[in-house]
Amino acid sequence: MKTLKVGIASYEEFKARTMAIARGELKPAPDDPKVWFTSIESLAKVLSDKNRELLALISESNPASMQELAEKSGRALSNLSRTLKTMERYGLVQFDKGAGRARMPRVMYTDIVFGLPLRSRRSLTRQAKRAPAKRGVAVR
Q: What pTM was estimated for this model as a whole?
């Protein structure tokens, strides 16, 4: 079983995190999310019920081409192509080379887990800076 961990962060938070990693100020932990969404809404669009059914169909049937997947799913090839390109950007699927020019979609994970903070990291940081520091306790 291969699990993908996703996170939710605003564009600004994600950019700050990426820059901190690039500067060597932050080392990502092994259990940190590998894929980031800017909102729960964007996560919900990519992983809608219909799209999760599509991922399950790909995983179960291992289609030899996009055309075969279109036939099995009942989706138009153009719609399917757009959806899978989006999923590919998030690392949910990859395309293997098939016979001739065929591209075979493959699902990369069996499970997806995500953490959803109830408060933004920024508001927690602001709150920590406003609160008086207690003796012996460092405020970051």
A: 0.74
**Helix-strand-coil split of the chain, %, nearest 5:** 45, 15, 40
CB 38 within 8 A of CB 119: no
Q: Set out the domains of the chain in order of their start, with CATH numbers.
A: 3-112 (1.10.10.10)
- Non-local CB neighbours of 22 within 8 Å, separated by 6+ positions: none
> How do residues 6-17 score in pLDDT, each as one tens digit?
999 888 998 999
Please check whether residue 96 is in contact with residue 104, taking contact to mean a CB–CB distance below 8 angstroms.
yes
Cα within 13 Å of Cα(108), Cβ side: 16
